[in-house]
């Protein structure tokens, strides 16, 4: 049986029964994602301890842990202590199930190889986990990114067809590079293709992040009333806040944070904790207390998490899918930022950006021919 016949057989005979199975499996993965979203940012193990109530620590029985049904039977309350369980669990399980089902439908519609569908299912799941951790903690655990890229590489090597979604119908015809590898076995070619996508996306995002810092420079917050800040060799601490390490606030060697004191002096500190006051050396070891009414710090246009998420998207849906997702996500993100009128804090972006990227990356998986058609149409329109 050839692969095409196998695909046909699967979609024609297995699909009717497989739909429900896919949804259920998706819900189970959603249930696991709940664990990932909760534990990964805290650096906890994903397997030990087993599921338990966060309030009374009672272990959750296997039958109460059945996705969706478990939550509904218990009506969102712990069986032992009746503490309510967040509806988030139910929502994530359901959404993951529906996403998995949609990906299967898209696979049948485009007659995609099963290895490509598998890659799309992994992509959908990681996009959910990345979005939710970004919403809750404003970071994307790097393990998620490594895991996703490793999956893409392994699938590219094992099933050259898994790279189909990112290699077919190229928008920018960058796959011309591909022909250099004509004599190589398909496995190596698809692995190279995946590597190419990942490295181009990473380099592009890295340059954008650098350029963003140069162009948009810094961000200023006014402190009214003035705030007392304690400066130390390794960190600073605003009144009533936890200490923040210089390395957390400043990501580049040549960056500085600027404190404008109430007596109209400017204290500058760099990533190493080296400081100046009005341009002269200023000793903050062991600590100095200052009152400030203004604070200037470098603004990160592209966070490290966004950089790695776009790189991951390139491994899943190719460089063109990743860049289109980034473009639309930036547009929607900017509109949302203007509407919500949120301000960036010292170590936090104003809004989580991963969900915006995820929405478009996922819609690319389902609707890529539509995207490509529209963009080609636009390009033709601009040319004429
Ligand atoms: Zn309990």
Automatic annotation (TrEMBL):
<feature type="domain" description="Prepilin peptidase A24 N-terminal">
    <location>
        <begin position="25"/>
        <end position="104"/>
    </location>
</feature>
<dbReference type="Pfam" id="PF06750">
    <property type="entry name" value="A24_N_bact"/>
</dbReference>
<feature type="transmembrane region" description="Helical">
    <location>
        <begin position="14"/>
        <end position="37"/>
    </location>
</feature>
<feature type="transmembrane region" description="Helical">
    <location>
        <begin position="144"/>
        <end position="162"/>
    </location>
</feature>
<keyword id="KW-0472">Membrane</keyword>
<keyword id="KW-0812">Transmembrane</keyword>
<feature type="transmembrane region" description="Helical">
    <location>
        <begin position="295"/>
        <end position="317"/>
    </location>
</feature>
<feature type="transmembrane region" description="Helical">
    <location>
        <begin position="190"/>
        <end position="209"/>
    </location>
</feature>
<feature type="transmembrane region" description="Helical">
    <location>
        <begin position="113"/>
        <end position="132"/>
    </location>
</feature>
<feature type="transmembrane region" description="Helical">
    <location>
        <begin position="89"/>
        <end position="107"/>
    </location>
</feature>
<protein>
    <submittedName>
        <fullName>Prepilin peptidase</fullName>
    </submittedName>
</protein>
<keyword id="KW-1133">Transmembrane helix</keyword>
<feature type="transmembrane region" description="Helical">
    <location>
        <begin position="351"/>
        <end position="372"/>
    </location>
</feature>
<feature type="transmembrane region" description="Helical">
    <location>
        <begin position="323"/>
        <end position="339"/>
    </location>
</feature>
<dbReference type="InterPro" id="IPR010627">
    <property type="entry name" value="Prepilin_pept_A24_N"/>
</dbReference>
<dbReference type="InterPro" id="IPR050882">
    <property type="entry name" value="Prepilin_peptidase/N-MTase"/>
</dbReference>
């Amino acid at each position: 049986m050839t692969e095409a016949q196998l695909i046909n057989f699967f979609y024609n005979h297995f699909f009717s029964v497989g739909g429900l199975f896919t949804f259920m499996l998706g819900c189970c993965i959603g249930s696991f994602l709940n664990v990932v979203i909760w534990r990964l940012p805290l650096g906890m193990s994903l397997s030990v301890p087993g599921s338990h109530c966060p309030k009374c620590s009672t272990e959750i029985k296997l039958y109460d842990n059945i996705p969706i049904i478990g939550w509904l039977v218990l009506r969102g309350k712990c069986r032992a202590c009746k503490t309510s369980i967040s509806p988030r669990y139910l929502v994530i399980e359901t959404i993951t199930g529906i996403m998995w089902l949609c990906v299967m439908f898209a696979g049948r519609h485009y007659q995609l190889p099963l290895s490509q569908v598998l890659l799309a299912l992994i992509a959908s799941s990681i996009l959910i986990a990345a979005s939710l951790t970004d919403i809750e903690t404003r970071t994307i655990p790097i393990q998620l990114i490594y895991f996703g890229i490793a999956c893409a590489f392994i699938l590219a090597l094992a099933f050259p067809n898994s790279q189909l979604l990112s290699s077919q119908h190229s928008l920018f015809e960058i796959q011309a590079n591909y022909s250099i590898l004509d004599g190589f076995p398909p496995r190596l070619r698809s692995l190279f293709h995946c590597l190419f996508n990942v490295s181009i996306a990473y380099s592009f995002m890295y340059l954008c992040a650098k350029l963003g810092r140069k162009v948009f420079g810094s961000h200023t917050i006014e402190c009214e009333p003035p705030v007392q800040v304690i400066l130390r060799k390794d960190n600073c601490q605003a009144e009533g806040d936890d200490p923040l390490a210089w390395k957390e606030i400043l990501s580049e060697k040549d960056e500085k944070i600027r404190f404008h004191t109430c007596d109209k002096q400017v204290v500058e500190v760099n990533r190493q904790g080296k400081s100046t006051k009005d341009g002269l050396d200023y000793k903050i070891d062991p600590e100095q207390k200052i009152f400030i009414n203004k604070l200037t710090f470098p603004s990160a246009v592209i966070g490290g998490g966004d950089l790695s998420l776009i790189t991951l998207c390139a491994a899943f849906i190719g460089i063109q899918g990743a860049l289109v997702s980034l473009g639309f996500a930036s547009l929607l993100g900017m509109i949302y930022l203007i509407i919500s009128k949120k301000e960036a804090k010292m170590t936090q972006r104003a809004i989580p950006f991963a969900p915006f990227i995820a929405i478009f990356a996922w819609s690319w998986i389902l609707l890529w021919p539509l995207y490509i058609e529209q963009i080609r149409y636009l390009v033709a329109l601009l040319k004429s």
